Amino acid sequence: RPDFKTKPVEQVLDDEPIMNETMLQLTEWIHRFYYCSWGEAIQAALPVGLNFSSVKKLRVKKSNRDQLTKKEKELLEDLEAGDYTLQNARKRWRDGVEKKLLNKAIKSGWIEVWEQPRQRVDYKTAKHWKIPASIEPKEILEDLSEKGQSKKWEQAFEELTKLDLPKTHRDLLGDELFTPYTLKRIEEEGWIESVDLPVETNSQNIGVHDPELIKTLTEKQKNSFDAIREPLDERVFKSFLLYGVTGSGKTEVYIHALKHCLEQDRGGLVLVPEIALTPQTVQRFYQIFGDQIAVLHSRLSDRERFEAWQSLKSGDKRIAIGPRSAVFAPVQDVGLIVVDEEHDTSYKQFDPSPRYHARDVAVMRAHMENAVVVLGSATPGMVSVKAVMEKKHEMLQLPLRPTGTMPEVKILNLLEYKHAMKGSLTAELHLEIEEALERDEQVILLYNRRGYSSYLQCEDCGHIPQSPHSSTSLTYHKKKNILLCHYSGYSRRADTHCEKCGSDNMVSKGSGTQKVEEEMQDLFPDARLLRMDRDTTSGKFGHQKIYEKFLNGEADILIGTQLVAKGLDFPNVTVVGVVNADTELAFPSFRAGERMFQLLSQVAGRAGRAEKPGIVYVQTWKPDHPAIVSARTHDFKSFAKQELANREMLNFPPYSRMVVFQFKSKSISKIQTVSNRFCDAMRKVVGENVVMGPSPSVIEWMNGQFQWEANIKLKRTYNAHVIEELLNRIFDKYKSMKPKGASSVRINVDVDAVE
Ligand code: ADP
Ligand code: ZN
């Protein structure tokens, strides 16, 4: 008997618990470490659609109705005819007399209110569009083309015939061509019909299944595989960092390890940054493992998600592949967890709570399940590198590409080209692009801009003002005309004077890809352009469409944000240009250099993967920046060494553990009072030196609310219990000195924050 108050069991919902012991443990760890409620952690670990709450429903009891008025009888009849919840009934009978009537019926016991445990998954069969067997799309299309000009919905039909039907309404409506109107028109014409179909978990086209296509490992790959196999065979926990340049064959190592894991009758879990961005990786796994895989991409409907979840839980499928949240997939008896591109920031959940890092949760889960975890990257994050140095992970290396060589990276110093620019392009990059276009080869131009942060840069020497306290870039706040360090809260007036070269040419920066696109159209009027950024990829197939268009040679130049840098293989690309590398470095984060290096390495990985050699051109004002120098020579190790030395000096992660507190409120004065008071409380608990802030966030005003933040740096070695206890003490202290109006300021806690 527990020593707290309990309630009697009313009904047993499951014969088997939906979470096993490990998942309970794992979510409990998340609850402590990331300082959220256990419930929040459990909710994150369960698929959408699973719900514990119950719903209040109505049941008519009264049979003898002779004494009732006409109105009362009607009410009961209505209730019997419909399947009412209390909430629905209150909505329907909400006004004066009717409301009284309903209340009377409940009070008198004519109707009973009972609690129905909510159906686990509440969904309908999904409507799918398909072309009826009686329709010959070819004939229709021929008719249309004879007619000449076709209407919007006729074009939509043509597009439909190219797709792999049937597809759900939901899937199609993400595309701008398939509006409800166009689909309705086509349906009226009888060219498509709508049918109810059970949704297949793996409904997206992920290629053919042919296990014969597994490759024989090279010597180096085999060494890595053997190292992974050992703890797998012994069924003990071990963590590896697999470091190998893009195209060095990491995926093949994962595949062999997974195969070995399945042969031992254990399951596997593969995490990838974003399924939409890594179609080739998923296809490769599918090729070898076929239907043993459940793909958990973000476009699944609730029902699909639940079915995938079930198929894993029942052991029908042995491997889960998916983004961040797939770390909770109920794979049975996990033997191996792979985290591909382990440095990717999408593994960190920002909102809502729990703000967990899927890579770290993966390591913890592997630990709890006696599994092996492999973190793979061409540009490992500093956290993982440090863990290798501390002998927490074992490092495996694949230094070379099995085919081809590393592309050449050329740095173009903007200072030297100051008087030889064509728009944002140096004369050299401009010429290279022209020549590539003449050879009918393709070009990728990267113009990165993160968030909405703007900064000042000197037009003469390229200098970007830095914070004296955190050696990160200062953010420019136009309204107040100040430069601000968002770690320490340091600020100063912004002016046009350059502290480095003395010129009077400091200007604010921060233009987007769209502007670059317009400029490129002017510079290369005959080239066909494609743009890939958050705006152009918002539709359902947005990303995939742009990707396919470019791959099919339907465009010559692809202009985009960091989205173009991720995981894509374009054999005809020979020139990759980074228009302004400094935009990344200007981002006010202590990780700016790390990001820059990762980005450049990834972009470089895009060029010259096939027979044609590729060159990457990087335009920058800071050719001597360690991130740029190391990226040029593909020298990750020397970069990591310098970067870590820097972090150690300033006690930034991975030498400390940073906890960010975010304050949100509609009132700027309350946010100031509360955040300052909160920081006072923190200083009392953890000491003066550990606390930084409060200061306005990089984006100070969003969705009608002000956002401020503060942070503390904790010892790296603190575990979940110590962190929880410490944060509890901070909040207790704060509670005892809470200012007035504190309740209108929300405080979010983000442990190991990643901006
Ligand atoms: P990474 O995951 O490190 O980026 P991949 O595993 O995708 O690298 O390999 C890059 C390319 O090299 C792919 O086209 C892959 O088919 C090929 N490759 C990898 N390993 C081998 C091998 N052992 N034999 C032949 N080709 C290989
Ligand atoms: Zn200057």
Can you describe what's shown?
The structure is a single chain. By secondary structure, this protein is of the alpha/beta class. Helices cover 36% and strands 20% of the residues. Strands 8-9-7-10-11-6-12 form a seven-stranded parallel beta sheet, with helices on both faces. Strands 13-25-24-16-23-22 form a six-stranded parallel beta sheet, sandwiched between helices. Strands 27-28-26-29 form a four-stranded antiparallel beta sheet, with helices on one face. It is globular, with a radius of gyration of 29 Å. It starts with 20 loop residues before the first helix and ends with a strand. Residues 119-124 and 199-204 have low confidence and may be disordered. The site of adenosine-5'-diphosphate has 15 residues, from α11.
Q: Quote the average pLDDT.
A: 85
Shape: globular
Q: Could you estimate the helical fraction of the residues in percent?
A: 25-40%
The set of bound ligands, ions and cofactors reads: adenosine-5'-diphosphate, zinc ion
- Please state the structural category: alpha/beta
Radius of gyration: 29 Å
Continuous helix count = 24
The description of the largest β-sheet is: 7 strands, parallel
Q: Give the beta-strand count.
A: 29
Query: Uncertain regions: pLDDT < 50 for 5+ in a row?
Result: 119-124, 199-204
Measured by DSSP, the beta-strand proportion falls in: 15-25%
Strand adjacency order, main sheet = 8-9-7-10-11-6-12
Q: What distance separates the N and C termini?
A: 46 Å
Catalytic activity: ATP + H2O = ADP + phosphate + H(+); Couples ATP hydrolysis with the unwinding of duplex DNA by translocating in the 3'-5' direction
Binding site for Zn(2+) 2: 485
Protein name: Replication restart protein PriA
Binding site for Zn(2+) 1: 458, 461, 498, 501
